[in-house]
């Protein structure tokens, strides 16, 4: 994988209309087989028919723009380093993917839940749960983020039901691990444009966010106007430009584990936009409950025969314990938060 890919002239990702899952008869069956084929081949696809009001999404992007336009001191007032739960604002260049700096600024907003008691024998990942940091300078953000989280959770649960049926399983196959308290994370993201320089220090040329898999079950990416997202396919990297009214859906690591590698999580990246421009996106990650263990689902024999097992990447072990898999990604991406709030863990790891 390279951060400066040569693009293959491969077809764009498929576009699927989720409302076909609610229809009956032959078209539903066709939809399900297209869904299975899309995730199997690409790990990613566009979805339409999701039912989220486009006017509301415009409001969300408007709020995102207003947040990033705030004076730096207002943004730093909620900097992530203040939060053991990895919530809040990250400056461009402070997050890392595969050890290299990403050129994007962002706000992480997760499920708003109480801190869990710090019991001596509690697993480390229990520290992921807790409140968000909200910007005083933009009070409208909180209710909008809450509504966005509710709506996107609904869409993603519906997609998960469709994924289960598409691989011959009952619709509620993921219910046991997502019920009541799934791991939800919204990221409002801004990729500032800049000259793409040859390697400069530890920043990879053109790396908005470097190649990675998302750690949860499914991710929805909402793109605003400008493109930059790319997906890795068997034919090479392909552009995933914004298509109005759609979200991009990425399969995540927990789906890879649950299907024993029948589905592999999508490897994707974002390239830095041209100097003088920028790109806004919103990513919504749905994972299972932090205390859940992801089961290997009983696939029908013809699909099980095609399951390759999860990828074994020494740089990216996958964990069936959801809290552990989530904490792995968070510690790796945010070394400043790791140093401040998880120093005990880092010390134990050396
Ligand atoms: O901004 C995007 O288009 C994708 C972001 C992404 O892949 C991530 O934050 O995990
Ligand atoms: Fe991602």
Automatic annotation (TrEMBL):
Fe2OG dioxygenase domain segment(s): 181-288
Keywords, A to Z, come to: Ethylene biosynthesis, Iron, Metal-binding, Oxidoreductase
A GO MF label: 2-oxoglutarate oxygenase/decarboxylase (ethylene-forming) activity
Per the record, the domain of life is Bacteria
InterPro entries per UniProt: DIOX_N, IPNS-like_FE2OG_OXY, IPNS-like_sf, Iron_ascorbate_oxido_reductase, Oxoglu/Fe-dep_dioxygenase_dom
PROSITE patterns of this UniProt entry?
A: FE2OG_OXY
- What EC class does the entry list? oxidoreductase
Q: Which reaction does it catalyse?
A: L-arginine + 2-oxoglutarate + O2 = guanidine + L-glutamate 5-semialdehyde + succinate + CO2; 2-oxoglutarate + O2 + 2 H(+) = ethene + 3 CO2 + H2O
Tell me which stretches of the chain form a coiled coil. none
Q: Name one GO biological process term.
A: ethylene biosynthetic process
Q: What is its EC number?
A: 1.13.12.19, 1.14.20.7
Q: What cofactors does the UniProt entry give for this protein?
A: Fe(2+)
The metabolic or biological pathway listed in the UniProt record of this protein is: Alkene biosynthesis; ethylene biosynthesis via 2-oxoglutarate
Instruction: State the family it belongs to.
Output: Belongs to the iron/ascorbate-dependent oxidoreductase family.
Stated name of the protein: 2-oxoglutarate-dependent ethylene/succinate-forming enzyme
What organism is the protein native to?
A: Azospirillum doebereinerae
